[in-house]
Specification:
Elements: H1 5-17, H2 23-35, E1 53-54, E2 60-64, H3 72-75, H4 83-94, E3 115-119, H5 132-148, E4 154-158, H6 159-172, E5 189-192, E6 196-201, H7 206-210, H8 216-232
Parallel strand pairs: 2-3, 2-4, 4-6
Antiparallel strand pairs: 1-3, 5-6
Helix pairs in contact: 1-5, 4-8, 5-6
Length: about 230
Amino acid sequence: MSPPRGEALQRLQAAVVHCRCCPRLVAHRQQVAREKVRRYRDATYWAKPLPGFGDPAAALLVVGLAPAAHGGNRTGRMFTGDRSGEFLFRALHAAGFANQPACSHRDDGLRLQNCYVTAAVRCAPPANKPTAEELAACRPFLVRELLLLEHIRVVVALGRIGFDAFLRAWGDAGRQLPVKSPRFSHAAEAELPGGVALLASYHPSQRNTQTGLLTPVMFSGIFRRASRLIGRR
């Protein structure tokens, strides 16, 4: 008899934390934790891979790129402790998928409601650029999440890398892909066989948000659309 999905997700999360498959990423995350930056010089860094987190019965899956060197790599939770996370959780809270907009550390009381957050790569990569080999090494974790999160009805992919990583993992999970491959652009929407909607968004990186390429209104609109789609399914 297979274990309950919540228990299986916990086992997967533990396996993620103990992964050391990519020497370059292991070295980088540990170097960042040793050298730190001035504003976090007194912090104890997590410096391990980051598992996904959220509601095991979620209808919404959010797929990002990778932890930030001084964000998730420091705090121990996806999109936590950096500007990208602030942007993301404000939008999730406004759409009813999070109990609060704040995301300072992994014990800050944040809880996701009907939402699960994960990423294409689980360690902070140098210059935020994982290699193709590192993406491939991490993909089985995302594949396993897709198999365990049985109630997903809408996927929001953040950035082109997250978008492409999700589609590859979807195929590797044995799920049918559309005849015409979805193409990434902000607010692009595709219907996947089986009734799952895929929404694309620019990644809420500082580069995108500070230049105005991605605004709070644009980003909130993605999650309002996700909420409406979930309500129809």
